[in-house]
Amino acid sequence: MLDVETAQARIFQAFEPLPAELVPLQQARGRVLAEPVAASRDQPPAAVSAMDGYAVRAVDARPGNWLEVVGEIAAGSPSAVRVGAGEAARVFTGGLVPEGSDAILIQEDAAVEGSRIQAKETIRPGLFVRPQGLDYRQGWVGLDAGTVLTPLEIGLAASLGTAWLSVRRRPRVGLIATGDELRLPGAGLGTHEITSSNSFMLAAMLEAWGALPVDLGIAKDNPTDLAAKLAAAGGLDLLVTSGGASVGDHDLVRRVGGDAGLTLDFWKIRMRPGKPLIFGRLGLVPLLGLPGNPVSAAVCGIVFLRGAIRRLLGLDPALPMRTGRLAQPLPEGIERQDYQRARRIGDGLIETASRQDSSMLATLAKADVLVVRPPRAPALEAGAEVSVIDLAAVLAG
User: Fold this and answer.
1) Are residues 197 and 296 in the same domain?
2) Segment-wise mean pLDDT, segments of 10 residues, the chain, 397 residues
3) Which DSSP string corresponds to 11-34?
4) CA 20 to 30 Å from 235, out of 51, 52, 54, 301?
């Protein structure tokens, strides 16, 4: 069996960043930039007023000096006004600072008499003036390639003067659930049947990670049905199956996949949950075969599928690891790398779930972190530091 790190490396190296496509700003949230975005001009493009008031020469704007108002400038208006000695110009927030002036006397500090004003306080050059290029200069690279675009970064892209962005194409990922026992949510169930949850869970993960899930349905535990589902995978960037990856008579993915041209890279890894993981290539399409137990499918999705998607998007596939402190002791670890569900209970402490069965999806859904224990990890006392995967952070994108 492969260790987790080797399996990750072999999966991730099988993927290269997808080509770029152009999308309008309105469709760019969550997309990954393929090219940097630079400023088309200075921002602001000329000096502007930061407040409503009067553009003046600071040397003239002394208490006791009356200044004649010679014009008015609003935001968005061009201006031919020039301020000379003993003069001022009415200006509003965002309006151009007129030639000859070097400060803004805010209206609260101005005494007004007809067409004249007088400063109540002495002001200095540059006061309430936003100089040209205050925010950024033409050519400044405001967004680097590889940026996952948030609403704020989309706002910056618009400010930089870009209407369309070059982003990585979203990976198209097929999902096949396997098993005679599976029924869609809402269907009537016999005692021998269960609701199919893996495809819905994995689809949500894929969307959060920037991919486009393609549900290929539930394959029955017979070679003909599974072969038909596998045949629909052409043109996808990745095919993900759940279930049928172990050694039972009804675990058909490797056998039926082999008949359909599956080239197997590896099968089985040294981890819990998720030992019966399959990775290979079905023709031109990479295939990742996840275990059928929901927790196993979810953990393998986090540990392996997320990194594959990030490689396709040109992002770092590594998981963001953090540390936590145990609220209770843990016994010596097993021979496989162990991912244990746990919750934060305050004061920086985490408490692992008392039962870690891979069928218990409710325990995972209520967990905050996965405690990662290497193979044959030594026993730990309460308060010991452990490596954890923050589930909220990882599942958010």
Assistant:
1) yes
2) 96 98 97 98 98 97 95 94 97 97 97 96 96 98 98 98 98 96 88 91 98 96 93 96 74 87 94 94 96 95 98 96 96 96 93 92 96 97 97 93
3) HHTT--PPPEEEEEGGG-TT-BBS
4) 301
Report if residue 136 sits inside a domain.
Answer: no
Q: b/e for 122-153, b at 16 or more Cβ within 10 A?
A: ebeeebbbbeebeebeeeeebbebebbbeeeb
β-pair partners for 105: 54
Nearest residue to 185 via CA among 170, 168, 201: 201
Determine how β-strand 116-119 pairs with β-strand 66-73: antiparallel
Give pTM, 2 decimals: 0.91
Q: Are 21 and 167 in contact (CB under 8 A)?
A: yes
29 with 164, same domain?
yes
- CA 205/CA 175 separation, integer angstroms: 12
Q: What is residue 69's predicted lDDT score, i.e. its pLDDT?
A: 98
Which DSSP letter does residue 147 get? P
Domain of 81? 48-130
In contact, 97 and 129? CB cutoff 8 Å = yes
146 lies in some domain: yes
Neighbours of 190 (CB within 10 A): 8
Give whole-number Cα distances, 154 to 36, 45, 146, 194, 258, in Å: 13, 20, 14, 43, 45
Please, are residues 362 and 338 in contact by the beta-carbon 8 Å criterion? no
Please count the structural domains in the chain.
4
Between CA 211 and CA 209 the distance in angstroms is: 6
Residue 212 shares a structural domain with residue 245: yes
DSSP result, 252-299? -HHHHHHHTTEEEEEE-BSEES--S-EEEEETTEEEEEE-SSHHHHHH
The torsion angles phi and psi of 383, rounded to 5 degrees, stand at 95, -10
CA–CA dist 335, 325 (Å, integer) = 22
